[in-house]
């Protein structure tokens, strides 16, 4: 791989041992990919803190927080002192909500160690956003900006909706990027790799958040990790907003490995179908109509048998303030059924907005709870005795039955709130 | 799954050689574990036992610890590298990775596992290697030697 003079100096240790270890990892990683060079970045999103007992024991045995960062974020077995980050770094979601230790089944020890690791990460310059949707709380890259992001649903939003450029990075490559402001110039950083390979022709209008989730799930299964362009000959109809595209992308990156999509006439690199395709012929043209919509809905509901619901989980990816507003309207004056729990997940910054707007009070008066920092797939935490769960997220409906062995119903937000208040699933595809 | 054929029983040292590109250097050998299913890291493997846990995966419950893992490539969450990184720390990592599809998840995961890894083969390793074959991977030279196990 070709390195610039500044990169060679970092590689040779002129900026200290931690930066040298970071460059060593980037060179090994870049050569593994077959990248020709690195590219500068000033925007990294990753998880750095320690939320597992394994990391706690590792820190105790090997020399504290620097040892954890050296091994888990730099792949360095030598413990190096970690300097302040060169790059604006946003912290992603955690394995739990530290504000809800009892509900999440956490030991006091785990929370205390986590808080220590959070203070350490903040002291190095990480923004403690603690969300899978950094673009909701101030990290909104511009079109063409080179980023190094983890978290599949954030990566796909960054590439597709914002037109910024990132591959799906991991904890170690992000750690190295924080200290060097570099990431391999490969994959979706290159303009020629950003054109659509598949066209998805819509035969029906796609409108609700649920509908966009279904479409994303259908597309991911069919195109796997390729690049789809969603197109409608009649025009896309009502422009999908943030929650719709958030759910669409999360679904496509769960059922497949989609990291970039185009919605013709909506997303920034696809003003026209020709622009989305970049002069290439599509590998395949798929059609999405009523039959495909119904099949996808049935696939997402295959694990569900019992209509009795013990748990309703909303917020995957983390709810927007618009979605919290909607949930509060649906809940106002009602009560969550005594045999059911309602947990809604959002970034901490948005919860403070919901607190101020009175939505948290409405949700809590109804018997629900607004949680932050995590979700049930990350935390593996669900209310005790949960056998069947209701969800408005295709991504969560994909992961929860696999991770926790529960049954899952996927439906609209209104159907989920009704399930929370009655303890029964009565949803059906409209 | 591997059915014995008369020729296989007659030959005890059938040797197949593949050439490919080094992803992570080094030399190692072990028994092959072959799957046509892509592998998820986060939510797809248990790093303590080095086994696949994904529901509906053909290797569900099978451990890749110490095996030469032959598979199409990585899928799923960006936690891929972190989970395989853990297999190295817990001594349950594969002896080597042989795969077809290059992605950032796969490249970074192989790098932090520190196991020899190769891709871009002159013939598809999924067609040439069977579970149970003894495989020697010399990633530095870009050579894979497959000793087809004699089957009774």
Fold and architecture overview:
The complex is a heterodimer of chains A (430) and B (152). In chain A, the strands form 4 sheets. Chain A has a 5-stranded parallel sheet, with helices on both faces. Chain A folds into 3 domains: 5-191, Aconitase, domain 3, CATH 3.30.499; 195-299, no CATH class; 302-422, Aconitase, domain 3 (2-Layer Sandwich). Chain A has 17 helices and 15 strands. Chain A starts with a helix and ends in an 8-residue tail after the last helix. Chain A is globular and about 65 Å long. The longest helix of chain A is centred in the first third of the chain and has 17 residues, at 17-33. Chain A is an alpha/beta fold and 430 residues long. Chain A is 42% helix and 13% strand. Chain B has 152 residues and is of the alpha/beta class. Chain B has one domain (14-148): Phosphohistidine domain (Glucose Oxidase, domain 1), CATH 3.50.30. Chain B has helices spanning 6-10, 80-89, 104-113, 125-128, and strands at residues 15-19, 21-24, 27-34, 39-40, 45-46, 51-52, 68-71, 74-75, 96-99, 117-119, 134-138, 143-147. Chain B is globular, with a radius of gyration of 15 Å. In chain B, 49% of the residues are buried. At the A-B interface, helix 2, helix 7 and helix 16 of A face strand 2, helix 2 and helix 3 of B. Chain A: One of its GO terms (molecular function) is lyase activity. Chain A: InterPro entries: Acnase/IPM_dHydase_lsu_aba_1/3, Aconitase_4Fe-4S_dom, PMDh-L-like_dom. Chain A: This is DUF521 domain-containing protein.
């Amino acid at each position: 791989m070709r390195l610039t003079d500044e990169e060679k100096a970092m590689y040779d240790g002129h900026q200290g041992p931690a930066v040298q270890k970071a460059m060593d990892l980037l060179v090994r990683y870049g050569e593994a990919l077959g990248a020709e060079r690195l590219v500068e970045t000033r925007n990294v999103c990753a998880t750095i803190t320690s939320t597992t007992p394994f990391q706690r024991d590792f820190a105790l045995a090997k020399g504290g927080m620097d040892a954890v960062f050296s091994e888990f974020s730099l792949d360095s077995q030598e413990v190096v002192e970690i300097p302040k980050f060169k790059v604006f770094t946003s912290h992603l979601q955690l394995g739990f909500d530290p504000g809800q230790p009892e509900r999440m089944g956490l030991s006091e020890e785990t929370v205390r160690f986590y808080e220590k690791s959070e203070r350490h990460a903040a002291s190095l310059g990480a923004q403690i956003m603690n969300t899978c949707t950094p673009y909701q709380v101030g990290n909104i890259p511009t079109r063409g900006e080179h980023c190094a992001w983890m978290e599949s649903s954030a990566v796909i939003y960054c590439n597709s909706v914002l037109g910024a450029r990132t591959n799906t990075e991991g904890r170690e490559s992000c750690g190295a990027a924080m200290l060097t402001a570099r990431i391999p110039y490969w994959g979706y950083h290159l303009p020629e790799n950003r054109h659509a390979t598949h066209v998805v022709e819509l035969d029906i209008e796609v409108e609700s958040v649920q509908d966009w989730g279904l479409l994303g799930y259908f597309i991911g299964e069919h195109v796997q990790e390729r690049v789809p362009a969603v197109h409608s000959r009649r025009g896309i109809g009502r422009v999908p907003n943030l929650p719709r595209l958030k759910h669409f992308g999360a679904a496509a990156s769960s059922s497949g490995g989609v990291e970039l999509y185009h919605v013709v006439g909506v997303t920034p690199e696809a003003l026209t179908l020709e622009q989305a395709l970049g002069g290439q012929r599509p590998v395949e043209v798929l059609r999405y109509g009523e039959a495909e919509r119904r099949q996808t809905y049935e696939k997402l509901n295959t694990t569900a048998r019992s209509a009795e619901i013990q748990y309703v989980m909303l917020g995957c990816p983390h709810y927007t303030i618009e979605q919290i507003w909607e949930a509060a309207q649906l809940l106002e004056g009602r009560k969550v059924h005594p045999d059911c729990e309602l947990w809604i997940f959002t970034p901490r910054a948005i919860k403070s907005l919901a607190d101020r707007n009175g939505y948290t009070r409405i949700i809590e008066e109804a018997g629900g709870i607004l949680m932050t920092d995590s979700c049930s797939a990350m935390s593996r935490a669900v209310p005790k005795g949960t056998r069947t769960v209701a969800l408005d997220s295709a991504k969560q409906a994909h992961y929860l039955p696999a991770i926790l062995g529960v049954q899952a119903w996927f439906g609209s937000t209104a159907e989920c709130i009704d399930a929370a208040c009655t303890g029964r699933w009565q949803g059906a595809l409209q | 799954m591997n059915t014995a054929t008369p020729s296989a029983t007659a030959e005890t040292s059938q040797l197949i050689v593949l050439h490919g590109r080094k992803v992570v250097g080094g030399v190692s050998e072990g028994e092959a574990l072959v799957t046509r299913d892509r592998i998820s890291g986060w939510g797809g493997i248990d790093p303590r036992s080095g086994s696949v846990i994904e529901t509906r995966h053909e290797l569900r419950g099978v451990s890749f610890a110490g095996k030469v893992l032959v598979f199409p490539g990585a899928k799923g969450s960006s936690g891929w590298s972190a989970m395989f990184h853990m297999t190295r720390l817990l001594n349950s990592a594969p002896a080597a990775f042989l795969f077809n599809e290059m992605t950032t998840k796969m490249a970074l995961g192989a790098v932090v596992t520190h196991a020899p890894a190769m891709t871009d083969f002159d013939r598809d390793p999924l067609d040439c290697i069977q579970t149970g074959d003894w495989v020697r991977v010399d990633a530095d030279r870009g050579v894979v030697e497959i000793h087809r196990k004699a089957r009774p």
